[in-house]
Amino acid sequence: MDKKEVIRILKTEKQYVCSAPGTYMLAQGPMLGFTRTNKYFREYYHYEIVIYKKKFICQCESWNQAYKNNKQLYDDPKTAKKKVIGWARLREEFLEMCSKLPNPAEISELDNRKLESSFFAYLERLNEVMAAPLVTDGIGVYTETDLWEDFLREENRKDARKIFLELTHSPTLSFAGQEKLGFLNLLLLYKKNRRNSSQFETKLAEHQRRFFWINNDYTQVRVLDRKYFLDRKDRMRRQTPWIQTTLSYFALTAGRLSITRIGCLKRSG
Question: Is the pLDDT of residue 105 over 90?
């Protein structure tokens, strides 16, 4: 595909577009992952046009292909579930490999050949583990059209939209949600056990090890140390009513989603 073809596609074909601040290096995982999606699905993106300017990345994909990609998942949920299970194993293998990579303190001791082999081994596995999930890029192209209309025919009621959004909401917390929930519980632990700081310090260390990467994005990689979480604790520790309200919201939301799903499944037989 040359420049002329890219311009023709952008002018004549409807695109699913998303953009964000970023750099090529940190965004190359999903970009190269797209080239491997055909290994996992019959329908996949045949091209991805990436426009990069002033540390800002714009990604363009075929709107019609986004529809086909995601329709296949809903048309054959059993196969889709098998793909998810297979990907979960691949992801665990990738995380296990990452845990064995040289840590920052060891990198300076590696010779150039060892550093190069470790780096490209990581990139290879990253690109592979990114591939299958990218078929869902642009999922709203399908869920917000045909899937919503099908649902409305079955659940034609005033609160249909609210129920639809709850049903299509992930049943598990995102990593950001997990980190927020864990940190709020840490704050309550600190307030309850100020005289027994060892328990708080242990839990804080566990939280830091689990979420040191949580502020990473496509522009830079940050390692959040213990001081980052302590400073955050100091800024938020007096907000007890807000902390308790937010924790209650997490619990109520999870319960409501479960009840909504059970109710809709019963009505559908």
Answer: no
List, in sequence order, every beta strand (DSSP E) within 42-196.
Answer: 49-53, 56-62
- Average pLDDT over the chain, rounded to an integer: 87
**Which of 16-30, 128-142, 234-248 has the least mean pLDDT?**
234-248
Residue 61 dihedral angles phi and psi, to the nearest 5°? -135, 155
Confidence of residue 66 (pLDDT cuts 50, 70, 90): very high
Partners of residue 61 on adjacent β-strands: 16
Q: Tokens for 143?
A: 């869920």
**Res 198: pLDDT:** 86
Neighbours of 40 (CB within 10 A): 16
Confidence of residue 117 (pLDDT cuts 50, 70, 90): confident
Pairing of strands 56-62, 15-21: antiparallel
Total of domains in the chain: 2
Q: Would you give the distance in Å from CA 127 to the centre of its chain?
A: 15
Tell me which DSSP letter residue 195 carries: T
Q: Which segments within the chain are labelled E, that is strand?
A: 15-21, 49-53, 56-62
Query: Does a structural domain hold residue 145?
Result: no
56-62 sheet: strands from edge to edge? 15-21, 56-62, 49-53
For residues 133 and 131, what is the distance between their CA atoms, to the nearest angstrom? 6
Q: Domain boundary residue among 117, 137, 157?
A: 137
